[in-house]
């Protein structure tokens, strides 16, 4: 997957005291990419937009 054009932003669910920092790039065609902001060169999870929407909807309603 080509992530050179990914526009990463810190998730609103990340906390401000150094833990649980997640970055999301949702500007890529057909995919939402997620990575650990403390390891930007590390692995990236890729979700279809439908799967990402289901994840954040489910996560939001359970927390």
Describe the structure in your own words.
The chain has 63 residues and is α+β, with helices and mostly antiparallel strands. The chain has one domain. It has one helix spanning 49-62, and strands at residues 9-10, 22-28, 31-36, 44-48. Strands 1-2-3-4 form a 4-stranded antiparallel beta sheet. Strand 3 and strand 4 (44-48) form a beta hairpin. The protein is flat and about 30 Å long. It holds the Pfam family DUF397.
Write the layout of secondary structure elements.
Blueprint: E1 9-10, E2 22-28, E3 31-36, E4 44-48, H1 49-62
Antiparallel strand pairs: 1-2, 2-3, 3-4
Attribute tags:
63 residues; four-stranded antiparallel β-sheet; DUF397; DUF397 domain-containing protein
């Amino acid at each position: 997957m080509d992530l050179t054009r990914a526009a990463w932003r810190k998730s609103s669910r990340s906390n401000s005291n150094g833990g649980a920092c997640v970055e999301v790039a949702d500007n890529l065609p057909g995919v939402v990419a997620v990575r650990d902001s403390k390891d930007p060169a590390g692995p990236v999870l890729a979700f279809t937009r439908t799967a990402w929407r289901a994840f954040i909807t489910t996560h939001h309603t359970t927390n």
